[in-house]
Amino acid sequence: MSTKEVQEKIVDNMRRWQKIENASVASTGQVIEKTENPIVRMVMEIIQRDSQVHYRVQELIADSLTTKALALTPDELADVWDMIENHIKLEKKTVEMAEEALEALKGRKMVVQEYLLQYLMEDENKHNHILDSLATIKKGMYPYG
What we know:
Elements: H1 3-34, H2 38-66, H3 74-105, H4 111-141
Helix pairs in contact: 1-2, 3-4
């Protein structure tokens, strides 16, 4: 398969995936309208917002292959890297706080609170992972630093 064919396949995949994300937003909206339960509503709102962000990421991927090339220069990353490093520290602190709260709940049968705290910890860990990946990109740009 040629590079052009691969790019066309990825763009097609992103466009089809965006339709699913739109359906997810509509579906979660229907659940939110139907229930007053704050737990169910919160879970649906989380999924809805994630689907909206996924749609934007898919759009960026498709656009990068059709109309707007993506680039990240060492200077652009260097301009904000100190702030990113500060944010990494904040994210690590949030994981520590989630772990501390989950530890306090152990054996207490507070399943809803544990469920929500577990979600928060997983999401904060996801943030750490994507920031670590950005650091890997930075290291690739600066092999000695």
